[in-house]
Amino acid sequence: MTTRVDTLLTLSGVGKTFGGTVALEGIDLSIETGKVHAFVGENGAGKSTLGKLIVGVHAPSAGRIALDGAEVHFASPAQALDHGLVGISQELSLMPQRTVLDNIALGREVMRGPFVDARATRAAVQAVMDRYDMQVDLDARVGDIPVVEQQKVEILRALSRDARLIVFDEPTARLPSDQVAPLLALVRQLAGAGKAVIYVSHFLEEILEATDTVTILRNGRHIRTGPTASETHETLVEGVTGSVLGEQYPEITAPDAAQAPVLSVRGLSRPGVFENVSFDIRPGEIVGLAGLVGSGRSEIARAILGADPATGEIRFNGGDTGRSIAARLAAGMAMIPENRREQGLMIDRPIVENVTLSHLRRFSGALGLDRRRERAEVTQQCTATGLKYNSLDDPAAALSGGNQQKILFARAALGDPALLIADEPTRGVDVGAKRSIYDLIAGLAARGKAILLISSELEEILGLSHRVIVVSRGRVAGELEGADLTESALMTAAFSGT
């Protein structure tokens, strides 16, 4: 069955200013039913602001928004919802202590006189789930179900209110990688059911896979809109950043092969996870650790840092560091963890506390913490890493994904590590902020630091690494460098054990 496509929403000359800051200017755009329409751009490009204008979070400062051809003005998201327009952000607005049924039915209960008809309410919610083939356990407590299921609850709540257009703002930012595909399938399903879907994301692979139309924004301006099928990863990067993909990676200085290794790993094993892993990293060398999801990359890195137990030999700067995280951090190791929110940041605490988290002894004295020295050194590291912030007392949550990652780089740099383990250092970061993180990594290597780089993005591994260790099913499947370091060789090694 072919989904009927009609223009639902039209934006004409739409602009938005916050004080003296121009967030959006002169946006002309049409949104159609039955299609997934992507908004892409760097942080600050205006993509989330544009989505919020559509669902009533913000009111436009200029221009016209028309729904079904008639101009509309929304003073709140509730007014937009009354017209069938709803937004779903990465931070879900659910009641975690209540059931799925309670969350979906809230404010839409079936009443019998002054009382809620529980049976009829349940039947009405079940009818919505059946209509869209989107089943969730109605009696489960929302806080106990996975994030992707929580997103289903948010979507079902919108559908129970007859939503015609749904704006997804970075919906996969909090999802584990294995839950992304079901979410994308759900987005496609909604469009197939005749809904208009706006998908705001900086994950270009998701845009190419799941959307029909893409709008590129840069510095608050509309660059272009067209069929997603006409775009590639390279054209999207060029549109978003204004530069071609090859310019995204800095020059990396060749390390001195004669120098003694900073890190030597021999026979590192953890039963059922990885086995007999051996490699060296020299000063100034960026060694990529590549492989398919589940190959054991992150687990190897955690064992090197001392976060997980393993057998084998780890020699750091020619000696034994001890097996604890504290001992290895003190010896000069540092790590950018795979998930900054769950493993790296105290997201609601100030920037200054996040940067000095691993280094409090450095600022401690008989009278407690030397706050003046702490702030001075944090300011210095924030400047060196290009961290953009208003105040060191702002919570980490107030910053963009790229700047949150830079907090972790500032923390690592504060300890002047000899080895930096960077696990997915650009995950959840827009393509513009990626370049600044690449510059940080290349700069650390140029200053003689050893880097162990883990990334799911092959281009990132190929663009930054001097040498790549390929892991397949927990074993080293190959070591590539020089002319042998190609995408085809890397993927051949990665699939060798599957």
TrEMBL record:
Q: Short name of one Pfam family for this protein? A: ABC_tran
What residue stretches are annotated with the ABC transporter domain? 9-244, 252-498
Enumerate the UniProt keywords alphabetically. Answer: ATP-binding, Nucleotide-binding, Repeat, Sugar transport, Transport
**Which positions make up the signal peptide?**
none
State one molecular function term (GO).
ATP hydrolysis activity
Q: What is this protein called?
A: ATP-binding cassette domain-containing protein
Task: Give the organism, scientific name.
Answer: Maritimibacter harenae
